[in-house]
Amino acid sequence: MREPGLSAPESLVSRTNGDTNDSPEDIWEKMKMRIGSEAELAEVLRIREAPVFVRGGGTRAIVPQVGEVLETGALSGVRIYEPGALTLVAGAGTPLAEVAAVLAVERQRLAFEVPDLRGLLGRGGASTLGGVVATNASGPRRVQVGACRDQVLGVRFVDGTGRVVKAGGRVMKNVTGLDLTKLMVGSHGGLGVITEVAFRVQAVPEAEATLVGTRGLEAGLAALRAALGSPMDVSGAAYAGGRVLIRVEGMAGSVAYRSGALRARLGGEWDIVQGAASDVLWAGVRDVTAFAGRAGNVWRVSVKPSDAAEVVKGLAAEAVFDWGGGLIWLLAGPEVDVRAHLAGRGHATLMRGVGRVFQPETPAVAALTTGIKAKFDPRGILGPGVTG
């Protein structure tokens, strides 16, 4: 914490026309809250005493804005890319589209299928890597490769005291700080401002195919669980609008065999959609396009897949199921109390609407959260309201 009377860092003073009588808050105003480097970010957070709201591309934040906006989009650029090692390191402000273009040259991708929620949340702008990591944004392929958290090899960030912290590395066998890396992923900016991320990337498969069938809710979800429990290496399992979607990816011969084997194993009528048409189906699931532009509260609910059908019974809401039923997107009126309906059977986040964003924490978890927050942000200037 800044000692009383401590002057601002020299580099910040020099940017305020040499007026050394400026208070830290005056300096902040003249900085216009646009951060140009990690060192500058550290200096600003070291002297900052009021809350800030961190924004990269402005496409993913779901917590209310508290404090002045701290723009980090300038912390961008791919720093290291080693296609043979399947690793990439880039600044947190790097647009996701830029990373995708770089990877596409080598027919590689971020494996966890990042959702584009701009339509759902009514946002513009361009998604950045920092926002992806801060929200642990993970799409349908999570059932095969894990979440964003599982593909992040390391991070650099500046905590609420202005300390620069490096956790993890560029290879999985380097486990130094691995737990700290995982702690930062999904922290919504409440523990530190991410400045750089190292990812493990994946080769784009030669082919993909999606089985599409029509089933009732319970039969459809049972088909998803059966597919995921098979040895066919399913990379997508979703149910929406009465349609069951099951995806396999890989070498063309393998995809043909596995899709046929799944159709035989599951029984009933199935269409097989391939290539670009399959991509379109999964983009709709990934981005929850069924709810985009429609009135109502949008909830993201995590449950045991085997509980998914029971959880939505009697609930006045429209549902889209992903991850074999483990993730449920709900569109409901503002009068619907989703958390009360869950009655401890799941975890609900209010993605869009008026109300408490995160699931309230149990006393034990709240105590742990408070202790961690005190270590990284003792003044409480980062992400007020992020905790449950």
Strand order of the largest sheet: 13-10-12-11-15-16-14-17
Averaged pLDDT:
90
What gross morphology would you assign?
Answer: globular
- The separation of the N and C termini measures 25 Å
Largest pleated sheet: 8 strands, antiparallel
Gyration radius over CA: 22 Å
Number of helices: 15
Unreliable stretches, pLDDT < 50, 5 or more residues?
1-20, 172-178
**Could you name the CATH class of the largest domain?**
Alpha Beta
Q: How helical, in percent, are the residues?
A: 25-40%
Structural class: alpha+beta
Overall number of domains: 3
How much of the polypeptide forms β-strand, as a percent range?
25-35%
Q: Report the strand count.
A: 17
> Architecture of the largest domain in CATH?
2-Layer Sandwich
The CATH topology label of the largest domain is Uridine Diphospho-n-acetylenolpyruvylglucosamine Reductase, domain 3
Question: Which helices and strands appear, and what pairs or packs with what?
Answer:
Layout: H1 10-13, H2 24-31, H3 38-47, E1 52-55, E2 68-71, E3 78-82, E4 87-91, H4 96-105, E5 108-109, H5 118-121, H6 129-134, H7 142-145, H8 148-151, E6 152-159, E7 164-168, H9 178-184, E8 192-200, E9 202-203, E10 207-214, H10 217-228, E11 234-240, E12 243-250, H11 252-266, E13 271-274, H12 275-286, E14 297-303, H13 308-312, E15 317-322, E16 327-332, H14 338-342, E17 346-352, H15 363-376
Parallel strand pairs: 1-2
Antiparallel strand pairs: 3-4, 4-8, 5-9, 6-7, 6-8, 10-12, 10-13, 11-12, 11-15, 14-16, 14-17, 15-16
